Amino acid sequence: MLVTKFGRRGTLVKSTVLVFVAGGLMGLSRHIGVPEMIIIGRFITGIHSVLYNLMARRRKVFLSLAVEQDRDSSLPTEPTPLPGECVVQRVVDIVQDAGISLSVVPMFLGEIAPKNLRGFLGLVPSIFICIGVFIAQILGLHEVLGKEEHWPLFLSLVVVPTFVQLMLLPWFPESPRYLLIEKHNIHATLNALRWYRAKTNIQAEVEEMQKEQRSLSSVRTVSVYELLRDRTVRWQVISVMVINMGMQLSGIDAIWFYTNDIFENAGISVSQVQYTTVGTGAIEVIAGLIGCFTIERVGRRPLLIGGFSFMGMCCAGITLSLVLQAHVPFMHYVSVICVVGIIAGFCIGPAGVPFLMTGELFKQSHRPSAYIVGGALNWLSNFTVGFVFPFLQMSAGAFCYLVFFGICVGVAAYIYFVIPETKNKTFVEISQMFASRNNCELEGEQLPITENLGLRMKNRYGAMEKKGKDEMYMWSDEWMG
User: Fold this and answer.
1) Which residue stretches, if any, does this entry annotate as coiled coil (predicted)?
2) pLDDT tens digits, 187-200
3) Domain locations in the chain as residue ranges
4) Alpha carbon distance 398, 262 (integer Å)
5) Phi, psi values for residue 188, rounded to 5°
6) pTM for this structure?
7) Coil, strand or helix: which one is 236?
């Protein structure tokens, strides 16, 4: 409704003001003496996240880093959280993570990136999430902003990254693939591609987008129900379910929940645990950077298979160390090493690659619904681990981590046998690789890819005309006319 009344840019400007209001409320709550302003501030931030989900992909990216850093920084600094604030905070977290950070940002970057850089740019969001967590851990130290009187200031820091993004992102064009396939705006598509690609020849890329558009039975975005019933993408949907559920069921949440207890059992004093936690944050960043800079060389499959396999080995190692630590003193340190190994293995591949592959396995019409399915299962699995793990730990004791060992090995095996490598593949080529497994053929016109691709359009008689490089801009004017 707001987008219809004010337009996308107008809604963007008006909704972004909410972030500054929210940050101000949270920052002034201590000085005014009204702690309920924290709840209001976080509620306003949640409204802002919902508004962004009503806009196009580019405009949804604005608060991805800002709210994520706000979420991570707020948790360790509130000594006596209000019940209402806890509820609102979790609602905001789900809207932000599932709607923006973990869905829209990888989708947007995957659509604007050339295929040889799609993996690198697809892992950038997970890198900045790790950096946000690391910065929040540093600022949350008792010597910095971890004291009770400083936490309102800590929460108000959300306005800093928001301001930076607000100043920079309006200068970026919308996704060219979104403009061409969904909006049919060739003029804006060419302008966006020239902006993103600089001096690179864009004819081949536009031809690849047109080929994807012709392969679609409908340009209309399919619903989640239609996605689940579509036999032509059956194995893609199953793969998205497996990797997104495996990401959360791998045991990473259980490790994060009980990291402090494991460190204390290893002999680290309570006063030093916070510094050890900061160290694990640094390991997350380093491991994420390793995955980001190697994904275009080794591919997606090795990072996922290696990451899940290494996490499974470390889960088995934690079980062994917990069983033997009463008899073998150095097993306390083995448990710490295994915790660090699980975190590193997770950040190298399983932390970011599932969101990247969710976009790669589908074409334009199915991609948004695929992210909805993946994000919903991701959060459902997260909730399941948080709810079930305490009971599992009470009943199975040290052997509870063997459950995660089995899940990690199972997911790694599924990826090895089912999911093909998508490195340097177009979205149409990836769909063709799944076509035989789905026992179907792609709909629409199948055109060969040649070395000298030209832009094509239908003339007034319905025939296909090929436009060369010199006629490209004339073609855009004809299309708009």
Assistant:
1) none
2) 888 988 888 887 67
3) 1-173, 185-218+450-480, 230-447
4) 12
5) -65, -35
6) 0.74
7) helix
